[in-house]
Amino acid sequence: MIRRHFGTLALALALPLAFTAPAQAQSYPAKPIRMVVPFPPGGGTDILARLVAQKLTEANHWTVVPDNRGGAGGTIGIAEAARAAPTGYDIVMGQKDNMVVAPWLYKNLSYNPVKDLTAVAHVAYTPVVIVTQANSKFKTLDDVVKAARAAPDTVTYGSPGNGTTIHLAGEIFNGAAQIKMRHVPYKGSNAAMMDVLAGNVDLMVSSVPSALAQIKAGKLRPLAVTSAKRSTSLPDTPTVAELGYKGFDVSTWYGLFVPAKTPKDVIATLNTEVNKLLATPEMKAAIVAQGAEPQSMTPEQFETLLKTDYEKWKGIVQASGATIE
């Protein structure tokens, strides 16, 4: 009789625990989620981040609020996200620039992307495009090369900031073409775009999402994309490799990260919902319309990509000779 009572008591105590854990997991999110965007409004990262935030809000009745924290090639926003509490209520739209390139360029970063952040959901990847003002004297990429060889350090190119993949794409092309263009860093794509449109810099090296609207409006002329394949959004624009620089391949990726030690069930929930969005024709079309290519991954696949690129870009940065000004 005593044993039976103890068994009944143990079962009674266990039942609340059994039902509590799933209930807690299902309650996420119970309040608004802040999505840190580590660049100013208007750039490729901002465009994709706001699209994901909007669609997550619409599909799930969540509240996902973009919060622009630009500066220092995106590293300020990433650092802020890395310091946040690991609860799932602070997520960040990172990309190759600030997650795997910047650590090899900046000596005193306050975060280690592999140790301090955890990959959640890959969203998209995009080539980089070299553009110039529509009325520019540069009609082709070869025109740029000839001018840079004739007068080194006089042809200028803008980028969203030091330490970005986009900045390095220009530096890597300097090496591949054996020329010297002068880099002009800006605090985000929008500022660089305004100056290339005004003719204050000769070229801009940009993500396709950042430049696409101005290209379609006829205000910018695309000279080449830096990926191995042509962009779906710019099918008539040749790759740098096609123009004689074989093997040239520089692109960037975008995805969501959370602070390390964020609960696995929260990461799983975010990954599931983002991947559901990426599987819809509407979301695919919206991402392609912005000049990017949608691509979903599991958290584990995305984490592997992060770690692989982190080691790969150490050598690329060192070989390019790029430095932070």
List keywords for this structure.
about 325 residues, ten-stranded mixed beta sheet, single chain, about 45% helix, receptor, 2 domains, 12 helices, globular, D-Maltodextrin-Binding Protein, domain 2, BUG, alpha/beta, 10 strands, Bug_dom1
Provide structural commentary.
The structure is a single chain. With 325 residues, the protein is α/β, with parallel strands linked by helices. It folds into 2 domains: 32-125 and 252-320, Bordetella uptake gene, domain 1 (D-Maltodextrin-Binding Protein, domain 2, 3-Layer(aba) Sandwich), CATH 3.40.190.150; 127-225, D-Maltodextrin-Binding Protein, domain 2 (3-Layer(aba) Sandwich), CATH 3.40.190.10. The chain is 46% helix and 19% strand. The protein contains 12 helices and 10 strands. The chain has helices at 2-26, 44-60, 75-83, 96-101, 113-116, 141-150, 165-177, 189-198, 208-216, 264-278, 281-289, 299-320; strands spanning 33-37, 64-68, 90-95, 117-133, 156-159, 182-185, 203-207, 220-225, 251-259, 293-294. Strands 1, 2, 3, 4, 5, 6, 7, 8, 9 and 10 form a 10-stranded mixed beta sheet that branches. Helix 2 (44-60) crosses helix 9. The longest helix is centred in the N-terminal third of the chain and has 25 residues, at 2-26. The chain is globular, with a radius of gyration of 23 Å. The termini are far apart. The relative contact order is 0.18. Mean pLDDT is 89; it is low at 1-25. Belongs to the UPF0065 (bug) family. Keywords: Receptor, Signal.
